[in-house]
Amino acid sequence: MKLSFGKDKKLKSQKAIEKIFYDGKNFHRFPVRAVYFYDADLEQEFKIGVSVPKKKFKKAVDRNLLKRRMREAFRLNQENLKLNGKLNIMFIYSGKEILPYSEIEKSMVALFGFLNSISDAHIENK
Length: 126
Fold this sequence. Notes:
This protein has helices spanning 14-23, 60-77, 101-124; strands spanning 25-29, 32-38, 46-51, 87-93. The protein is an alpha+beta fold. Strand 1 and strand 2 (32-38) form a beta hairpin. Helix 2 (60-77) crosses helix 3 (101-124). The longest helix is centred in the last third of the chain and has 24 residues, at 101-124.
């Protein structure tokens, strides 16, 4: 499998992001929270976005570092994500301090397992 995080996997639509936060469901595995929304109109299997709150990390350098770490954890472990549904997912860093990459990666892998089970549930409900 090609380990890339291309444009086709990036969640960029403002409408889709707003819909995730208004109608989506969320779950948490410290230090990352995932908010997802099942979108039947989505062409791709999934699209993801990452976010770090400005309220907790004032410096853009720190926010960018954490976003890079979350994207890299996703990119390297995306083969574990076996989604059967069409999901839009936002990963939000919820820690109060900058944690090492290994902790962020563990959290992302744990979230992938939960997302896989959610995806299977959406397919069964059709």
